[in-house]
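Lecture notes, unit on binding sites. The following record was shown on slide 14. It pairs a sequence with WT7.
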Amino acid sequence: MTEPAIEALYTEDRSFPPPDEFAARALVNDRAMFDEADRDPEAFWARQARELITWFDDFDTVCEWEPPFAKWFLGGTLNVSYNCLDRHVEAGRGDKVAFHWEGEPGDTRTITYADLHAEVCRFANVLRDLGVAKGDRVNIYMPMIPELPVAMLACARIGAPHSVVFGGFSSDALADRINDAEAKVLVTADGGYRRGSAVPLKANADVALAATPSIDSVVVVRRTGDDVHMEAGRDHWYHELMERAAPDCEPEHLDSEHLLYLLYTSGTTAKPKGIMHTTGGYLTQVAFTHKYVFDLHPDDDVYWCAADIGWVTGHSYIVYGPLANGATSVMYEGTPDHPGRDRFWDIIERYGVTILYTAPTAIRTFMKWGTQEPEKHDLSSLRLLGSVGEPINPEAWIWYHTHIGGGRCPVVDTWWQTETGAIMISPLPGLTTLKPGSATHPLPGIAAEVVDEAGRRVEVGGGYLTLTRPWPSMLRGIYGDPERYRQTYWSRFEGRYFAGDGAKLDDDGYLWLLGRVDDVMNVSGHRVSTTEVESALVDHPKVAESAVVGAKDDTTGQAIIAFVTVKGDVEPDVALGEELRAHVAKKIGPISRPKTVIFTPDLPKTRSGKIMRRLLRDVAEGRDLGDTTTLADEAVVDEIRERAAAAPRDE
Ligand code: WT7
């Protein structure tokens, strides 16, 4: 027997079959789709592509696979904006609400499919008037306002790939991304609202624009009304260009493999990678997953994905998936704690949201804030909850299920990546018996396997999560760097896609994500995942959130250092630290007992909410901090460093 790549220590016995009422109405409540996909995955995807998408010309080849390069639905032509807008309007659904939009200050806009269609056509003409042709890249740096999806769809309409840069990124990050894509036009806004103040987007963009020679024109949406510099000949107001633009715009007929967008992954160290997504395969898989994972009933549901469009979650599950499926969505500009910590629950009550999709980091923050916040509101409209972005600790899952879902809503834990484009591993809520903390199984048409160091398949236990077949929405590469694409994703295991996640399979064949393999700790020769120790800590009733890291240790190789945030009303002390160490030992075994517990009011996170364990490792080992450019709040680390210096240690 070889040593396992990662040990499987945590056991979770609770399980939740789909409620009868939910299953009875669900789009999927039997295994037919899995059987069909198992028999012939390509035929399965071809059927989805033809059912969910309207093609101008049908495709003749389903998939061309020249590893590691895949092409889907060759010979087919389509237009993403046509699929998201025109076909709904043509079918008489123009009056249907596409977005209930709400600004952070409380201003609202109701946007129907007809409204969105008209605005997109006009803005597509604006872009053309600025000289943007099919294939030219357009950069978008905007707050969460309706003009953001308008700009994306207008690009898609004329075949100009967009590159959206999250509005929280700095001028440097923006300049790097504009330059890598050699974008011709930048679409931005004067500013946007976040936690009660205006973020000066145009001022940030001006700094970037000093170093971006490819940009000819800048379009600025007026959002905050703050004074901004407008460079004559280069900068234009959105509303002025829109007034002058023609209203009608025929959608381009684009090849299935036409580049739809670039999205740069928030790499914590190296140069960001421009992940390429194309047209037909991407749209097929986002529409498919949005429909079946969220069990979408477009006439009844009010769907809310509370991510930012600047991340892939927003691209796929605020813009392209929901609009392709003709859904009614909520779109919210700001943060969950403005003006109060019940903003999300207030929004759900007012719009009657039925499906909520958010991230574990948000759920753990809500746990920290306490149940009195959701209890102020009627959340009975909710029928389904989703989670994405990180492993969800079983206790956070239970909290979400109980306090937000009222015990009646299935929770779909959806595993995927910027690179996969769409959900890959997830329950289907009318069919799958849920286990809190498990993403359960690959979706129909998706093939995932856990392997050991040598790339041999693991049937039960921990290892590396790999994908063994191309999928329609897979990345087509890294922009301008095919060699880096091959190296990064396809070189570790022969013939397999591997992008850095550990996972385990339990006795029932359920998949449990174990975090990034770079974070796995080695304690006296045992390979312990950060996720399992964190889940054991969050299992304690006083803990809201935790991050653990392995720090160099003379005796054990690495020692586990735990950073812990407690729930709102708890006062942490030395005795609680001892209690937590014992709790972990009891829950998953003495080898995983943290050497030190450091209490901290917050954890360092990237702007998309992922815990930066690398920084915590630096703190734990007393090093100077490495690169902190992707850190959301710098002050958090200083505070943690002081607390780490003062924490009692178990020698
Ligand atoms: C990484 C991808 C997918 C859109 C948002 C993040 C982690 C994502 C889960 C999940 C455990 C998850 C993985 C993955 N991750 N979803 N349900 N369970 N881990 O996109 O920024 O490209 O990050 O997020 O580590 O590789 P991303």
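Take-home: Residues 373 and 604 are 24 Å apart (CA to CA).
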